[in-house]
Amino acid sequence: MNFFKIRALNEAQAMLYQEASKIELETEHVPIGACYGRIACENVYSEVDIPSFDRSTVDGYAVKVNDVMGATESIPAMLTLKAESVMGEVMPETLQKGEAIYVPTGGMLPLGSDGMVMIEHSEQMSSDLILIHQPIAFGENIIYCGDDLKKSQLIIESGKKISAYDMGLLAGAGIYEVSVYKKIKVAILSTGDELVDCHLPMEMGQIRDINGYSLMGLVAELGGEVVHKAIIRDDMDALKASVVESLDKADLILLSGGSSVGARDFTHKVIESFEDGEILIHGISIKPGKPTIVGRVQNKLIFGLPGHPTASALVFEILVKPYMENVSKLKTTSVRVKAKITESIHSSSGKDTFIMVNLTYEGDALKAKPILGKSGLISLMTRASGYIHINSEQEGLYKEQEVSVYLFKRGEI
Fold first, then answer.
1. CATH T-level assignment (fold) for domain 29-50+150-181
2. Contact status, residue 268 vs residue 281, Cβ threshold 8 Å
């Protein structure tokens, strides 16, 4: 048994990477209307050029650029208005020297044209005479065939989380179904006699189940699906019954609370009570989150996360998140930015320390202000832009030292 054999962070992360590599998620085909947030399991290539024809980006006149070169308000270029491009129809005309053809925004350009004059820079003198008051450059106001996407070009890379814009690009390429990994099914069990769900009345001495709902959101951000959520009292039989139910429904179990050493710690006992139950990790040299547990039952991992909301969320970020990303083949979503710390910080000797920070700009300089507080306060997480990692070999950070900030949300500063 590995009970409270403290592991270094890099050792724990390497172990979890190996565990993730043993799991193969099934795949499925889904229509693009249902693929938002899903993770592609294969590369998707375009079978067409987008757009499939040369288009105008303005309302105006298709011309030959040489015909309007040198045009001014006082000496306009005079062109013969030959035809009009109709939206949704093929433009059959070929533009000749000295001619112009009206094309609306998005309309097909005629063959022979190499520029579009905006209607504001023209004047129609008669049914077949147009004056152009401004010259244009070659290709001005034109989107050419394949400018947006070329045939055989990669649209979505395997492992990419599909975005709303990806959905639009798929639709533009005429792709109506994509292959994705099935969602990781996750069970979330919050343990403690003092816990009360958010919709129930609360008595003095009780607290709301904060962690359960925070973890639900974090799982959803990674493309996972919460298939079971429950609050379990400090009772080993009740906890084991809920774990048994979770193993039947889920690929991964997250237990919040119950990871500390004490009379009410049943997590490691429940894991080891299964015939194939094994404790992989019980204790990591990190702050916060030292008493974190990781066990395995029926080839499924069970994470025993700290009960304090901030510690629970940070352990999810540094351990559960990369595990889920590796299982689902999701390309890493962690984003780092460089900033200067606004005050000196002392770290815990021999531990990897994680400090939440709030990012602000002072002029052009990005500053990271530490958010120092007790790990039981969930409001710390809502105020934080991200966190910094002080490795176990560092004694701390000095004011104005440049640090890497891991953002909680992509692009959030």
1. Molybdopterin biosynthesis moea protein, domain 2 (3.90.105)
2. no
